[in-house]
Amino acid sequence: MSILVIDVGTSGLRAAIVTPDAQVEHVHYRMLPGSSPAPGLAEFDATAMGRAVLDVAGATLASNKDRIDAVGIAAQRASTVVWDRSTGEPVGPALGWQDLRTVFECIMAKADHGLALAPNQSATKLVWLLNTYDPGRSRDLLFGTVDTWLAWVVSGGELHITDHTNAAVTGLYDMGTRTWSERACKVLGVPMEMLPTIVDSSGDLGRASALDGAPMIGGLAGDQQASLVGQGCVTPGLAKITFGTGGMLDLCTGTRAPAQHRRSAHGTFPIVAWTRNGEANWGVEAVMLSAGTNVEWLRDDLGIIATAADSHDVAAQCESTDGVQYVPALFGLGTPNWDYGARGTLLGITRGTGRAHIVRAVLEGVAQRGADLVEAAESDTGLSIPSLRIDGGMSENPTFVQALANATGRPVEVSPVAEATTLGAGYLAGLAAGTWSHLDQVADSWTPAIIVEPNGSLDRDRWRQAVERSARWIPDLSALDF
Questions:
Q1: Looking at the predicted structure, is the pLDDT value of residue 1 above 80?
Q2: Which of 153, 299, 378, 429 has its CA 20 to 30 A from that of 326?
Q3: Of 272, 223, 213, nearest to 58 (Cα)?
Q4: Is 123 helix (H, G, I), strand (E, B) or coil?
């Protein structure tokens, strides 16, 4: 009884088998980077994505000899696809979640109608696509985030669905009623009939008719929520951070609905963590706008390391940064500051500062931002995070993981698989198929690859001074508030 998982990120996608003993096997990966036709724009070819998904899923199924009981889908959130209902063809490019072409529209939606929308959400991207390709609203078009598009593709056009974890980050979702917001759709001119049906994250969601054997689609979730489940964070107070290009902390808060549906005092957002049997489990999310991007900067732009893995070896050449501080604000600061005009800052350089000090400072700066996210989530929820679970590319860097333990002052548990999204989507589908009977079994399956205890501390007061130096560098961007 195995689960096929389709896991689509921002720059690539994979298919894999999740076994009943929570192993990830038969992985087939395909790079699928988007394009940026102009600064601030992020697009991708949804048709090419669909073909690639069918290719890697077929390859994984061919290499696996066990019976497939269900399919789980995890996907990047808020990226926006619009396609023709009858032909299944996208009307134009899909807009990635990083796309910033609708910043002005978000500002006007708040000023004119009191709608709090961010450019990384789907709502204004959908409006842009409609205004560009169907200004008269005369075509029979469908909207979906990436999970919706993938369900459509693997079902042979039979399913037009999304789950609550994805719907809740579109800007078109009412968290109070857990349905599409009629008011938001009316204000924005979005026909509600083009929106997908909202379903549970785990359940019998339909058949993957385009795949061999037409297995049941049993799991559907946004990538961060899938990672939360994949790391066994299914009881209140358990949290994970995924350190990829950016960094996302997600904290499980339980079945009690959030008191407010907007950004909280310390910069976190309420999220739907998952739904099952019609019941929602909630969480909060804290955001780091750049994490692994800073290591890429060291490698690709400064050229002081040859590979991302070299950052550990180089940083290990010195025991401390000798006072050098780095603020990883290449795209601004997210939680708790939310300052889009902040910029990356390197402070405390002397004549004795060397390559190793700078590399270590970058890794420690990302770790300090991780501690910011932990503190914000605890402050906004009143929950204590006893230990921190992590996945993503940077989780494989020993110097970084130790710095994170020292910055947060708590144990760091490293995921046994670098991309826990795949495992989480497998759990959600497996719960629907009976591979696992209860979330307690998911929690009990958590076995970290390593637990790193603090062996020192990083100066948090000095860090806050450095953050203040990086703030408001571009005042016009700092003035933006979504």
A1: no
A2: 378
A3: 213
A4: helix
Q: List, as one string, the DSSP characters of 74-116.
A: EE-SS-BEEEETTT--BSSPEEPTT--TTHHHHHHHHHHH---
* 1 contact partners, CB below 8 Å, separation of at least 6: 20, 66, 67, 69, 430, 433, 434, 435
Residue found under tokens 């994984």: 60
Q: How far apart are CA 154 and CA 8, in angstroms?
A: 13
219, 151 contact by CB (below 8 A): no
Band (231; pLDDT cuts 50, 70, 90): very high
Comparing 2-221 with 232-414+449-482, is the CATH topology the same? Answer: yes
CATH 3.40.50.20 fits 2-221, yes or no: no
Report how far apart, in Å, the C-alpha atoms of 311 and of each of 269, 305, 315, 404 are. 32, 6, 6, 15
Angle subtended at Cα 418 by Cα 417 and Cα 424, rounded to the nearest 5 degrees: 60
pLDDT tens-digit series, residues 175-203: 999 999 999 999 999 999 999 999 999 99
In whole angstroms, what is the distance from residue 7 CA to residue 65 CA?
21
Tell me the C-alpha distance between 93 and 202, whole Å. Answer: 30
Classified as helix, coil or strand, 387 is coil
Percentages helix, strand, coil for the chain (3-state, rounded to 5) are: 35, 25, 40
Is the pLDDT reported for residue 275 higher than 80?
A: yes
Give every CB contact of residue 216 below 8 A, 6+ residues apart in sequence. 69, 70, 71, 204, 205, 206, 207, 208, 432, 433
Give the total residue count for the chain.
482
Three-state DSSP state, 14: strand
- Residue 135's H or E segment, with its range, is none
Strand ranges in 289-344 using DSSP code E only, listed in sequence order: 325-327
In contact, 211 and 244? CB cutoff 8 Å: no
Residue 354: HSE in the Cβ half-sphere, 13 Å Cα cutoff: 9
The pTM of this model reads: 0.95
Give per-residue pLDDT as tens, 71-96.
999 999 999 999 999 999 999 999 99
- Domain borders along the chain are 2-221, 232-414+449-482
Element holding 288 (H helix, E strand): strand 279-288
As a CATH number, domain 232-414+449-482 is 3.30.420.40
Would you say residue 323 has pLDDT above 80?
Answer: yes
